[in-house]
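Milestone M4 deliverable, item 7.
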Amino acid sequence: AFTLFCGLGIYNVINFDRLLKANNAQKVVLEILSYHASASKDEVSIIERKEIPSSMSLNIASYEFADHTLDRDQTVLATIRMFLDLDLVNKFRIDFQTLIRWSITVRKNYRDVMYHNWRHGFNVAQMMFAMLTSGGMSQQFTDLETLALLVGSLCHDIDHRGTTNQFQKLSDSPLANLYSTSFMEYHHFNHFLTISQVDGNNIFKSLNEEEYSQFLELTKTTILATDLALYFKHKGNFSKLASDPSTNWEVEDNRILLRSMMITGCDLSAITKPWEVQRMVAEKIASEFFNQGDIERDMFGHTPMYMMDRSKRDELPKMQVDFIDNICMELYESLEKANPLFRPLLDGCLSNRRNWSNLCERRTSFADISSANITLTSINTTRKCSSCMRCVRCELVVEESPPSLQRTISSEL
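Output delivered:
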């Protein structure tokens, strides 16, 4: 018995020593991050000296927003404007300088890959902001949910490597060994946690223990929902709920599903944008996919899947039509049924399908897509809603969202 007691004592001492080392290692990582990957004083000062433009001048409440009009610092200013207009700075007593530092830090922690970079994270957050404001959803969600949706949108692809979950698995990457599923999404969430714990970056310090725990769970759910594998798992149930006018969106499971489908809609929203934006984004995504396909061919000696095979690049229009038909259309149809104020997203998706189909029929090559001389369809932004919800298409501010998100406009909208 004495020998067993001594053995257990030694085992506990060893484990405690390992725990101390792990804790110290974490402190070192945070220290490195605070120096190399956090906003510098000069970067913060530059933003502090600038005026925060209005959401109207930035056009960030529009479903048709295009980020190419903003430089890098202006995207940070626009991010801060989103927090201000949603009254999150006031409600959660966020220190303004800390918010600036955190926003710049998030920007710095996106890698310079072809598509899944800071611009993408910012655009996803902008679309979430449009849904919350022009779509009236900020009236449906709690303040904590709103904060988590905006933060989760901004950070949903942070430190993305320009490769997919399947590539992590094929290459036996450390991320694939660290997490059992949704490798990249779990990494994005944990990376968000890490940078937010660095000194001077904690915009959540006013939350009490219970609020912070709830916030982290909401943010985690938001980021994990961007894994399309989860979208395919739940899209049928969401379609049924959205099609049923009696659905109660106050039920927690329904509410989680609604938030998840909204972030997916934001993540894929480039497919809903005006043609020139959609075309440029599609080319960037394709280039990133082709880069991964090239790496797979070199590393594993196999032919990459269709959408990542550079030899199939001239079939991009067909790939886009298939992408819309198999993923996007049902999503935006269901979102529009859940909230008619999301109709512009469906209109944009339909418009771009016609454009890609046109290019597909003409067998337009990848190199010629940008200069193709075709008659393009455009989003109809002049049609006004037949209800009194004061949507953005009537050029009025949404004051109240539709009760319980029930369909309140006719099928003629």
